Amino acid sequence: MTIRRTILLAGLALLAGTQMARAEVSAVFGGADPLEGVYDRQNRHFVELVNERGKDEIELQFIRGEQLGNDVQVIEQVMTGAVQFYGDDLSFFANWVPELNIASWGFLFRDNAHVQAFIDSPIFTDAVEKLRTEEGIRVLAAAPGQVRVLVATRPIANLDDLAGLKMRVPEIRTYLTLWETLGTAPARVAWGETFLGLSTGVVEGAEGGISSLYGAKFHEAARHVVRTDHVRIIAQISVNEAWFQSQTPEIQELLTKAAQDAVRWQTETVTAEQAQTLEKMAAEGATVTEIDVAPLRERSEVAVQKLEEEGFWPKGLWAQVQALN
């Protein structure tokens, strides 16, 4: 942890102590999503719901952006209890629970109803129970989130156009493998450095949720926005399990209900905003295109057996998810 983050966390601890005069319980929500991105707003909505409903009982402090680090770093702080809450893409938890790698595999889900069927299935509940018991993080609520699309500095009309594309990918193994499978040359560049990377040619492409890409202005550096819709994100809000168990049943219920309401709000917001955001990108000079993703889906399926043999997720899990209705 950097000196800056250590000082910030120490300051938050001091602030939490002063809040005790107004609220019986204080805690910190660590963000990592770009400011005004959909998960930044989801998390802020959750904090506002808790503070409004909790009144004098509980008060949350929301640290936005990457002030506490990237997603993996914030998750590690939640594990240690230095930070109590975190919310973003569920896929980041796959760094600790391999079963969740499946959720970020390309072209896995047909639509949001299929995503919800997965969340309601024993596959999901068993995976998040493992996260709780082995890593000390409880997922309070989860729901369908954004679709992820591609932005590139050159036109992408088909699978062949992806060959050799220098592609920024996040620190999730399945994302790296997916884009290697599709023929690109993945590069690990920090999210906050990607705009510069696209502008200077360090990378030629990036992918992400529509609102996240727009919030980071990637479409200004990479003018070709391609509706691959390759991943349907699962949004989540989670909490340090030991801290959660130390709270009263009333506060636990308040937090769980607020998290459920916040992720549901996120789903409704994403659904309403995606088309509008793509229109904004086009109005600001980007070219938004839809391509035939069937060849991309077929290529991704070719890699499934290899991934299962390498232990990315348990054998047969991809077929189990495909069979969900």
TrEMBL record:
InterPro entries: DctP_fam, TRAP_DctP_sf. Keywords: Signal. GO terms for biological process: transmembrane transport. It comes from the Bacteria. Residues 1-23 form the signal peptide. NCBIfam families: TRAP_S1. This is TRAP dicarboxylate transporter, DctP subunit. The lineage of its organism: Bacteria, Pseudomonadati, Pseudomonadota, Alphaproteobacteria, Hyphomicrobiales.
